TrEMBL record:
One of its GO terms (biological process) is 'de novo' GDP-L-fucose biosynthetic process. Its cofactor is NADP(+). Its EC number is 4.2.1.47. Pfam families: GDP_Man_Dehyd. The keyword Lyase applies. InterPro entries: GDP_Man_deHydtase, NAD(P)-bd_dom, NAD(P)-bd_dom_sf. This is GDP-mannose 4,6-dehydratase. Belongs to the NAD(P)-dependent epimerase/dehydratase family. GDP-mannose 4,6-dehydratase subfamily. It is an enzyme of class 4 (lyase). One of its GO terms (molecular function) is GDP-mannose 4,6-dehydratase activity. HAMAP family: GDP_Man_dehydratase. Keywords: Lyase. Residues 5-313 form the NAD(P)-binding domain.
Amino acid sequence: MTRALITGITGQDGHHLTKLLLELGYEVFGVTNGEQKSQEESFTKLFPHVKLLEGDLTDFSSLVTIIRQTKPDEVYNLGAISFVGISFKMPEVTANVTGLGFLRLLEAIRKVGLEDNVKIYQASSSEMYGKVREIPQNELTPFYPRSPYGVAKTFAHYTAVNYREAYDMHISCGILFNHEGEYRGHEFVTRKISHHVALIKNGAIKDFTLGDLSPQRDWGYAGDYVQAMHTMLQQSSGDDFVIASGETHSVRDFLTLALKIAGLKGDLDSYVKFDKEMIRPSEVDLLIGDPSKAKNDLNWVAATKFEELVRIMVENDLNLTKQA
Ligand code: NDP
Ligand code: GDR
């Protein structure tokens, strides 16, 4: 049985990846810090056969213990402070978890002596492109991060490249563009929209707040994107891959479509008020990925299109808010 260890297992991608790996017959282990008990309980309800181990990307000795105990064939590093907005408020914690955390994990793997046997996935991000140097962005596009989160991810990305070259380790970086779905955290804009649109539809609220509606993102469905993570680790050596849909849409487009899918008619302004607190000190205006390499080398394409993604999220939240 192939053994996989996932950091950040109780997050959005952790849910989708766990489901995929269990379906493929893997034995799955996850790292959690033991602080978010309700999150862990709901995860364990969904995936009772997954063993959760207490550890933290800021704590080297816990990582060594977990690697020694689980002896994984594959490690997926999904753990991060992943909300860009928060990274401006907690830049040092973000650098420690999202940047240095990956370095610690690699050093823990080397300390245990598994560096020649384990295949590693690093969750790199389109936020590394930030103020984009070219359109669309591919694996060779220079990085220009615009947030402490983007800077931390860029550190981790180059650490992966360096350890791959210096120690011949099998490390792949998925430069994933925004991906969303039923397990998305409520702080991210897509989920904030689908959740509040569902509340309006069910009569619980009349309106809600958002920040800038003009930024454009390349949005895909998380269930498709975790397949690319797994496929990367089945290649003969590590590499970097842009994982994206190749389309871009504004926050306004997402909102307009969500309202339409929920059957809410009328002016956007009647449903959404402006919240200046949501404005970031520096913004990423436009992201659009070129996933050609993933298509050629991994036979991967983003199967779920934008409209279907918005529908999945709105219908999921309509059901959840009805039940509540
Ligand atoms: P989530 O925010 O949903 O999940 C992140 C996970 O990291 C959570 O389970 C969180 O646990 C955990 N975590 C936080 N701090 C630590 C720590 N100190 N040690 C160990 N684990 C920690 O993110 P996603 O699932 O959406 O994303 C997965 C990864 O992919 C992240 O690294 C993210 O930055 C990256 N990424 C995501 C993209 C997206 O669009 N979703 C795009 C590109 C990259 P807890 O909740 O208990 O704090
Ligand atoms: P992002 O996602 O920063 O792209 O990072 P987020 O959903 O937070 O923001 C997308 C865009 O929407 C604008 N926006 C708002 N954002 C939030 N959260 N709340 C609002 O009310 C709001 N109003 C407007 C933002 O300014 C931004 O331009 C996500 C995360 O998953 C990262 O971890 C990942 O690396 C990148 O995607 C790729």
